[in-house]
Amino acid sequence: MAGLAPIHTDMRAIIEDIRAIYRNDPACRNIEFLLYPGFHAVAFHRFIHFLWRVGVPFIPRLLSEFNRFLTGLEIHPGATIGPGLFIDHGMGLVIGETTEIGRNCVLFHNVTLGGTGKHHRKRHPTLGDNVYVGTGAILLGPITVGDNVKIGANSFVFMCDVPANCTIAGTPARIVKRNGKSCDEELPRTKVVEGRTVNVEWADASVPPCEGPDTPSQWG
Ligand SMILES: CC(C)(COP(=O)(O)OP(=O)(O)OC[C@H]1O[C@@H](n2cnc3c(N)ncnc32)[C@H](O)[C@@H]1OP(=O)(O)O)[C@@H](O)C(=O)NCCC(=O)NCCS
Predict the structure, then answer these.
(1) Between helices 59-71 and 37-53, what is the axis angle to 10°?
(2) Sign of dihedral through CA atoms 170, 112, 146, 116?
(3) Counting atoms of ligand 1 from 1, which one is nearest the CA of 153?
(4) Atom 41 (ligand 1): residue with closest C-alpha?
(5) Assigned architecture for domain 2-213
(6) Tens-digit pLDDT profile for residues 61-91
(7) What is the Cα–Cα distance from 52 to 47, expressed in whole angstroms?
């Protein structure tokens, strides 16, 4: 019955998702959490991801396409989503297969957490806890976004990591605020070291590095 433990975890995560709606959207009153397509998509995804984790073939992909048809959000069954995710509006949002999202994050419509087409295995972004991604932001590659980061609407991040505790904006995105102080800094590029993608290079980074084989001979 070991497989039941993840079900409990998913149920707790759904309760955290409901709390996140009330925390982040002052417009949500009484039982209106039931009306958020982002909530529907994520709740359904948690079930689909459970099937994916236990190795059910084909059905998770089929259900995720159905989820997309119903909600307008495309979440790959393999994406790992922490509790307390709030997706506002949601239409057009894309979350790729190897994406990892921490606790209490906020995403808006048209956000893309995508791959570059060059990486295999881990090829989509990893978001830390309390990450806020504005509408239309595009994050590409196996990058790491630290905790407590705000990403401005329509920002574009390609193969660059984002340090914790900062605000980034623009195309390409730059750091406009770090640890509460205004600044204007380039984002550090995601490094590929000896064929492996190494995402975090700051001493104070709170998200563990994600690594993955980066050359065809290592994909296994
Ligand atoms: C970028 C964003 C996240 C900043 O939010 P915030 O709460 O004001 O964040 P912070 O206080 O950490 O940072 C604000 C600083 O970023 C700067 N900033 C914001 N956008 C910027 C940009 N595009 N270029 C340069 N600087 C920018 C502000 O000027 C401000 O600088 P200051 O403190 O020196 O005056 C916000 O403007 C944003 O884009 N939110 C998305 C909202 C959204 O998508 N809503 C959809 C509703 S349907």
Answers:
(1) 180
(2) negative
(3) 39
(4) 134
(5) 3 Solenoid (2.160)
(6) 999 999 999 999 999 999 999 999 999 999 9
(7) 9
